[in-house]
Amino acid sequence: MKLLLTIVQDTDAGKLQQALIESGFDSTKLSSTGGFLRQGNTTLLIGVEDHQVDTAKKIVESTCRERTKIHTPGPTITDLEGMSATRPIEVTVGGAIIFVIEVEEFLRL
Ligand code: 2BA
């Protein structure tokens, strides 16, 4: 069994969970925050049998869109001293980040 630890944008999460349910996959939704943008994203825990990994990955791929976001970096110590200015930058956020993790044991008690 594998755990697909899947990080997606909030706007794609509902559609992805619905698509997973329709294909018979269970998932758990967690609210998360990206370290770079410091904005909310969604992490789904999707437990699947080994032979279902590719199907689940395809569902994620077909549901989650790549987007660009404008990111304004926070002030640095240098900025505070007035020696440089931060400018907004365009950042591409991927459709999804997936970590495929081996599950040692799955228990439903
Ligand atoms: P964030 O850390 O908020 O990153 C959002 C997007 O910003 C990233 O999209 C990437 O395109 C860009 N980015 C990240 N670090 C950057 C940097 N130092 N300079 C310029 N651009 C940078 P994704 O790569 O699609 O990642 C989306 C979210 O997935 C991330 O949100 C983070 O929450 C998670 N993630 C990505 N890689 C990860 C990793 N290796 N470990 C844990 N979480 C990860």
Write the layout of secondary structure elements.
Layout: E1 2-8, H1 10-22, E2 28-33, E3 40-48, H2 53-63, E4 67-71, H3 77-80, E5 89-93, E6 96-102
Antiparallel strand pairs: 1-3, 1-6, 2-3, 4-5
The structure holds ligand 2BA.
Would you kindly provide a written description of the structure presented here, covering whatever features stand out?
The protein is α+β, with helices and mostly antiparallel strands. The chain has a domain at 2-66 and 94-102: Alpha-Beta Plaits (2-Layer Sandwich). Helix content is 26%, strand content 36%. The chain is built from three helices and six strands. The strands form two sheets. A four-stranded antiparallel β-sheet has the order 2-3-1-6. It has a two-stranded antiparallel ribbon with strand order 4-5. A hairpin with a 6-residue loop joins strand 2 (28-33) and strand 3 (40-48). Helix 1 packs across helix 2 (53-63). The protein is elongated, with a radius of gyration of 18 Å. The two termini are 17 Å apart. The model has no long low-confidence stretch (mean pLDDT 91). Residues 7, 34-37, 41, 91-94, 97 line the site of ligand 2BA.
